Amino acid sequence: MLPAPFEYHAPHTTEETLELLDQLGDEGKVLAGGQSLIPLLKLRFASPAHLVDVNRVPGLDVIEERDGVLRIGALFRHKAAERSTMLASRYPVIAEAAGQVADPIVRNRGTVGGSLAHADPAGDWGSVMLALDAEFVLQSKSGRRSVKARDFFSGPFSTALQPNELLTEIRIPAAQGRTGGAYLKLERKVGDFATVAVAVHLQMDDGKVRSAGIGLTAVGAQNLKAEQAEAALRGRPLDDAAINEAAELAAAAAEPKADQRGSEAYKRNVVRVFTQRGLRRARERARGGA
Length: 290
Hints:
Number of strands: 14
Order of helices and strands: EHEHEEEHHHHHHEEHEEEEEEEHHH
Strand order of the largest sheet: 4-5-10-6-7
Strand content: 25-35%
CATH topology of the largest domain: Uridine Diphospho-n-acetylenolpyruvylglucosamine Reductase, domain 3
Distance between the termini: 46 Å
CATH class of the largest domain: Alpha Beta
Helix content: 25-40%
Structural class: alpha+beta
Radius of gyration: 19 Å
Shape: globular
CATH architecture of the largest domain: 2-Layer Sandwich
Number of helices: 12
């Protein structure tokens, strides 16, 4: 099937993009990597009257760590995240998740910001950003605002992003001291959406957990943050007792639905096991291991 007719726009500046989005309102749709949007267009599940291609807008693919913040531009590609040595060493949960997004073709073109704006509950990036306590910079013609990841997702394929706004940047508190992370994903086959996935980010201080982030993928109407599990870890040595308690709390936070991929009990158990494995892997990385 071919997409419904649309008018194509290719702005060259952020200001031009925001002007277009302000004019078009609900009739406009932003095109980033296109790995989610283009299939929807072909199936006519989405039929916007206007497409606004932001790939020519400079500055949207930046990545830098400065003034205590890691800034990731919305057009930063999955493949670039996978290959970044800085991310692999300081934010391994990002690099590990990037390497498990779909397949090489999608990773080459797809963008972090586009995936987040699409807000598929089985998408990889939402849980990662929840674990990292990220916030998203949303810009419109009238100004900009920052929205915490936990407040950004409002349901399946639904976010706080307004039709006249552009997601321009993801901001993550810079890693401090000994940090570690992990992303574990269960899929039916390589390149598939997650049946269950768990993202973990840890910061350790004198053998104790200074901060912990745990995000859950594909076990709810949106990506979930296991806040009680995170709170249970803070200030404690990351021993087996702490890991097991956090894993139980993460499983309790999950809201899975039974489907052809597995029962509710099965998915909760995967959350439990992946949280245990993720915390142990993150602990080893925080200690300087692989």
